[in-house]
Amino acid sequence: MKLDELGEFAFIDRIARGAPKDLGAHVLCGIGDDAAVVEAPHGVQLVTTDMLIEGVHFLRDVTTPRQLGAKAITVNLSDIAAMGGIPRDALVSIAVPPDTDVAELDALYEGMGEVARRHEVSLLGGDTTASPRDLCLNVVVLGHAAPEEVLYRSGARIGDRVLVTGTLGDARAGLEILLGRLDLPSTQADPLVRAHLEPTPYLAEARIAAISGVAHAAIDLSDGLSSDLGHVCRASSVAAVVNAGDLPISAAVRAAAERLAVDPVSLAVGGGEDYRLLLTAAPDGVEALRGRIQETSGCPLYDVGEIVAGQGVRLRRSDGTQEELRATGWDHFRAP
Amino acid sequence: MKLDELGEFAFIDRIARGAPKDLGAHVLCGIGDDAAVVEAPHGVQLVTTDMLIEGVHFLRDVTTPRQLGAKAITVNLSDIAAMGGIPRDALVSIAVPPDTDVAELDALYEGMGEVARRHEVSLLGGDTTASPRDLCLNVVVLGHAAPEEVLYRSGARIGDRVLVTGTLGDARAGLEILLGRLDLPSTQADPLVRAHLEPTPYLAEARIAAISGVAHAAIDLSDGLSSDLGHVCRASSVAAVVNAGDLPISAAVRAAAERLAVDPVSLAVGGGEDYRLLLTAAPDGVEALRGRIQETSGCPLYDVGEIVAGQGVRLRRSDGTQEELRATGWDHFRAP
After folding, report:
1. Shortest distance, CA A240 to any CA of chain B (angstroms)
2. Do B130 and A53 touch (CB under 8 A)?
3. What is the average pLDDT score of chain B?
4. β-pair partners for A54
5. Alpha helix (H) residue ranges in chain B
6. Which of residues 303-332 of A touch B (CB under 8 A)?
7. Residue B191 pLDDT more than 70?
8. DSSP letters for B117-135
9. Is the interface score ipTM higher than 0.90?
10. Digit-coded pLDDT (tens) for B44-79
11. pLDDT cut 70: percent of chain B above it
12. Does domain A32-149 sit in CATH 3.30.1330.10?
């Protein structure tokens, strides 16, 4: 069987089935969350890695090298945030076509350094090599947390509210613009493109949630709400209901949806790469959590739904009807 | 300037110059050794990463997926060995062309798992993604050691003997065979090809050296003796003299050199990917160290030269003449 018939998530399941028997007793969480969790002498260590491939994750003609470097670090910091952790170190592997301009690489490393500095992460080095054709970047971030702080995907409880830290669908609309499939006035287009090219890691917000005792599960929205909330539900053996009317959708995404003749809700639940933090939290603690996050970082916390018994993710329309949300998120291996 | 004009090592220097100012106080060693070294609550943590790109580091038509998986883990374990450390965890990122056969990936993961199990390393997961054209693998290995055990490249002292754990040039001769540029009877060809495709990490030997107090510096021979010993000399502000007559060169490499009409010594000092461990050690401790390694693993320890004052690496011929050894090792970015 070819990989594009099997699909990415089935492949990950296949790896995961082969792997657990070989894990040491110090491994609290291997495959299946935003980062691996291993025992360390004081607390736990978090380790995450993300690979970015030219033509799959980015297009060099619409992304500046500085943006690419910054995003490569950010998506890994976002994984540490989604575990409630504090990042400390990063390693970078890069494979570069030999005719690449050195100035482009300098800018890429500047972009990485900028994000690393902002979050007090040390760039420890890594590996540099040639690539015959495509630029390939791999970043590893090491972080830590107290064991009781770690926010696993598997922690969601029935009755939890489902919270997100920002508007949804922006990055996907931005990608449509970058691919030349959507044209909007620049006042609307620019923030969407920036959402795609310059995501933010919600580290401070995640830490507040992690130490609050109120948050039970977390994931970062890399594949899209329907897909990522689905991961949380499967890992926690619960279901979720998302209220269409409560989804934070920017005016620019609404304009994009109109132009694309699609439902803005489908952009919001199916669009990937927003890198918002999704939390599930005890309902009676949400107000206090929102207040603490608001006063620390000014970041909003939108309540978009609830965790219920059952399985799968459902979308509740304003008329009360419910439909199942299939994981429309990104599968890297599926043939289109 | 294009990257292939600048060269790999100049590019690494360039990254290193930009990076140190951003390192936290916990970083004992960032860029510039086989692995990064960071303070951990008990001892130090070692982190290393290596990226393998199809067409640069391996050819899929002459490497089995199992061999590729095993080698991807091995080259990282070899970096941990070269710091005197104990590996514990590994993460794997893989970018796969969508039409790849799933059986090929299963075999690749089996190869990784086999080496990981043998050395009690836990595979924690990683990242899976599509690649438009070339298979790309990135492995990270985390290890640990006591701070005083770590074998830095910078530890070589004048008077030290230069020791290697196996014959040299075999992997390079094997590559010539794989590329169809060399033809030898299979009794000679097979071990050379295996040396290229199935290297071994010298973890047990490195640990004995690390705790012996006799070994002062270490590096693994990935680029070739002249290049890698050059790294040790630069990092330690010393020079080295290699005795041509003392280089361990297998009969198969001698046969390969004859067929290729090259000096076998040039294959031994310039050939990459042998992944032998190179140590520098106090001369009066070498015998005891050799004995301990011999009795534990049966591995030989060849004395190939000495550390002297000055800079650079020189080759001393049996007639006493010396010539400078240029770093003929592999530079990934240089135009041929």
Report:
1. 26
2. yes
3. 91
4. A58
5. 3-6, 8-18, 65-81, 102-118, 170-178, 186-197, 203-212, 225-236, 251-260, 264-270, 286-297
6. 332
7. yes
8. HHTT-EEEEEEEEE-SSS-
9. no
10. 999 999 999 998 888 888 899 999 999 999 999 999
11. 95
12. yes
Q: What average pLDDT does range A127-148 have in this prediction?
A: 92
pLDDT attached to residue B336: 38
pLDDT digits (tens, 9 = 90+) for B10-47: 777 777 666 545 688 888 887 778 888 888 877 899 99
- Could A23 and B88 be called an inter-chain contact, meaning their C-beta atoms sit closer than 8 Å? no
Q: What is the dihedral of CA A307, A313, A316, A322, to 10 degrees?
A: -120
Scanning every residue of chain A, which has its alpha carbon at the shortest distance from the alpha carbon of B25? A122
Amino acid identity at B204: A
Which of A7-16, B168-177, B326-335 shows the lowest mean pLDDT across its residues? B326-335
Q: Which CATH superfamily is domain B46-141 in?
A: PurM-like, N-terminal domain (3.30.1330.10)
> Burial code of A15-49, b = ≥16 C-beta within 10 A, e = fewer?
beebbeebbeeebbbbbbbbbbbbebeebbbbbbb
Q: What part of A 139-178 touches B (C-beta under 8 Å)? A: 140, 142
Q: Does A128 touch chain B (CB under 8 A)?
A: yes
Asked if the Cβ–Cβ distance from B98 to A122 is below 8 Å, we say: no
pLDDT mean over B192-208: 97
Q: How many helices (H) and strands (E) does chain B have?
A: 11, 13
Distance in angstroms (rounded) separating the CA atoms of residues B225 and B216: 17
The answer for residues whose C-beta is within 8 angstroms of residue B98's C-beta and 6 or more apart is A2, A3, A4, A333, A335, B130
Contacts of B15 in chain A (CB under 8 A): 109, 125, 128
Number of other CB atoms surrounding residue A142 within 10 Å: 28
The answer to whether the Cβ–Cβ distance between B56 and A129 falls below 8 Å is: yes
Cβ distance B22 to A93 less than 8 Å, yes or no, reads no
Which residues from B are below 8 Å from A332, CB to CB?
128-130
* Overall fold of domain B153-325: Phosphoribosyl-aminoimidazole Synthetase; Chain A, domain 2 (3.90.650)
Q: Alpha carbon B214 to chain centroid distance?
A: 21
Parse chain A into domains and list their residue ranges: 32-149, 153-325
